[in-house]
């Protein structure tokens, strides 16, 4: 419940003390922060009759003095400008201003000077400056997510903005949790180091008073790592429910857009997938695809039983009972058809793109050695006309990451074949990935073949067998959490910032991945938290990735890197 509960608590506090009819005014960021934790019907219960965006409300002139305006905005300069204009000609009876992060003194003075009509009743900072997707998973939805791959010299001011937004997001999470952490970062990443130092400066110097909470016995840990330490996870096909929906269809702020899927009624063209609002999804979000099919069949059977009993209406009492239960019945019907639609659509995509075949080779590349067999398998798939361009590209990338040092000649052969079979992808993109996230650039033991302990562990796993060939991959994050739990996270790989060190094992850990998280990793965190190891992990990232988004960021970074080298 942690993150979701924290944001809900802030929104409750915003709305419950202001009686009467309200309009809630958000910006393009805070609309996401609110929508993932609060439903439309819950807002109505709090007498919010209108939800508007701050820039569109600027266009309107009509007076609404009977409404009280509740603003919830990020403290960025364009929002301050909107507020100044709107306070100069007030349209609402009262103004209640809430900002999702720390306001600068200059911004406060500007707002105070603009309130000539004295309509502002209150101004507060409520630190919900992140999208709480699940209780232990947050994202910052950053459009400029590709910036993490670019050296600082390419665009210093854009990189500075990127880092500031990440620091804002991380600091808001700790303010919402009322904690001040010890900070560590991934040694080989310049951007992780920079963000770690800037976060430390904010928490221990610039705003040390704000972060001066009652000390817990052991400080929590903030670990800042780089997506490029594990470029494999976002490239893989997924076979557990939530991750698979995002990989094959796409989830944005816990909503799935199904407009392009067949002929669906209007109310099913966008569906909500939230563990807080959907009991079936909560129970099955981490299960593999085979089990989901069985569980949906059971849900359909249960629904048919309910439907059958509803057909048997004979007396007035029966009818009254049916009407009473109708909202529940409708909700159940909507839920059944939502999950049936999703699974049907995913089965279709799996069949069309031959993903069972592709994924078997992907998992082999990610988890097991055997370069000769891998080369043969990838070559066969590149030659297969049923395999889509994006799947060919991902296979070559996974092969290149695994065998970049072992077989340069065969790697060149795959590059050439990719160029001829899928001409829209230039081999340069695979080389750019190796330059970004090749073996020399990574912290940690991605393939479990660098240190003896991991080699032994992998052999043991191989002997025990894996329950499912499609879900045998473990993200690097799993190993990182295991190392933290056992007190084995090496200082040389993950140095501390400043002179704040961890004396004992932390009880709370926030791991932030610069470059974005995946649902496979958030599943790992949820499963780790359910083992009751005495440590609670929270995962955050600059964006939420699937393979399409990861490749889009890679292409964008490559394009900018190219143009900047041409300019030099």
Automatic annotation (TrEMBL):
Any single GO CC term annotated in Swiss-Prot or TrEMBL for this entry: Golgi membrane
The entry's keywords: Membrane, Protein transport, Transport
InterPro entries: Sec-1-like_dom1 (IPR043154), Sec-1-like_dom3a (IPR043127), Sec1-like (IPR001619), Sec1-like_dom2 (IPR027482), Sec1-like_sf (IPR036045)
Membrane topology: Peripheral membrane protein
GO biological process: intracellular protein transport; regulation of vesicle fusion; vesicle-mediated transport
Subcellular location: Endomembrane system
Annotated Pfam families: Sec1
Protein family: Belongs to the STXBP/unc-18/SEC1 family.
Protein name: Vacuolar protein sorting-associated protein 45 homolog
């Amino acid at each position: 419940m942690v993150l979701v509960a924290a944001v809900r608590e802030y929104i409750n506090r915003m709305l419950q003390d202001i009686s009467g009819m309200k309009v809630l005014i958000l910006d393009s960021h805070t609309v996401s922060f609110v929508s993932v934790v609060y439903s439309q019907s819950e807002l109505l219960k709090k007498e919010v009759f209108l939800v508007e965006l701050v820039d569109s409300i600027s266009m309107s002139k009509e007076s609404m003095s009977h409404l009280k305006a509740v603003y919830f905005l990020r403290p960025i300069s364009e929002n301050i400008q909107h507020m100044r204009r709107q306070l100069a000609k007030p349209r609402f009876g009262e103004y209640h201003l809430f900002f999702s992060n720390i306001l600068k003194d200059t911004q406060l003075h500007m707002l105070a000077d603009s309130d000539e009509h004295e309509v502002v009743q209150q101004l507060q900072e409520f630190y919900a400056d992140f999208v709480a997707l699940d209780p232990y998973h947050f994202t910052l939805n950053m459009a400029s997510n590709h910036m993490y791959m670019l050296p600082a010299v390419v665009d210093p001011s854009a990189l500075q903005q990127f880092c500031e937004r990440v620091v804002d997001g991380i600091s808001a999470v700790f303010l919402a949790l009322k904690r001040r952490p010890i900070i560590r970062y991934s040694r080989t990443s310049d951007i992780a180091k920079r963000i770690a130092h800037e976060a430390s400066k904010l928490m221990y110097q610039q705003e040390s008073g704000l972060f001066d909470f009652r000390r817990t016995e052991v400080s929590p840990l903030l670990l800042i790592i780089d997506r490029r330490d594990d470029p494999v996870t976002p490239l893989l096909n997924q076979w557990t429910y939530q991750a698979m929906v995002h990989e094959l269809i796409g989830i944005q702020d816990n909503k799935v857009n199904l407009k392009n899927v067949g002929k669906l009624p209007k109310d099913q063209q966008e569906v909500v997938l939230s563990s807080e609002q959907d009991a079936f999804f909560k129970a099955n979000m981490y299960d593999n695809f085979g089990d989901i099919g069985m569980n949906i069949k059971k849900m359909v059977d249960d629904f048919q039983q309910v439907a059958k009993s509803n057909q048997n209406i004979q007396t007035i009492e029966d009818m009254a009972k049916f009407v009473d239960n109708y909202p529940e019945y409708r909700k159940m019907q909507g839920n059944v058809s939502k999950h049936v639609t999703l699974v049907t659509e995913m089965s279709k995509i799996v069949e069309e793109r031959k993903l069972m075949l592709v994924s078997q080779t992907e998992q082999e590349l990610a988890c097991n050695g055997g370069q000769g067999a891998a080369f043969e398998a990838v070559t066969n798939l590149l030659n297969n006309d049923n395999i889509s361009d994006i799947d060919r590209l991902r296979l070559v990338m996974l092969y290149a990451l695994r065998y970049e040092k072992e077989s340069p000649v065969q790697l060149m052969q795959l590059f050439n074949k990719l160029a001829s079979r899928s001409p829209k992808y230039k081999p340069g993109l695979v080389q750019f990935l190796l330059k970004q996230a090749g073996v020399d650039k990574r912290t940690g033991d991605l393939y479990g073949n660098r240190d003896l302990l991991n080699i032994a562990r992998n052999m043991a796993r191989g002997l025990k067998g894996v329950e499912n060939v499609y879900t045998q991959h473990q993200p690097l994050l799993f190993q990182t959490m295991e190392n933290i739990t056992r007190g084995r996270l090496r200082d040389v790989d993950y140095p501390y910032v400043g002179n704040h060190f961890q004396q004992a094992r932390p009880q709370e850990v926030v791991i932030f991945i610069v470059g974005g998280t995946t649902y496979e990793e958030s599943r790992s965190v949820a499963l780790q938290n359910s083992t009751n190891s005495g440590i609670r992990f929270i995962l955050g990232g600059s964006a939420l990735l699937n393979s399409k988004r990861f490749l889009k960021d890679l292409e964008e970074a490559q394009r900018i890197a190219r143009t900047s080298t041409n300019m030099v």
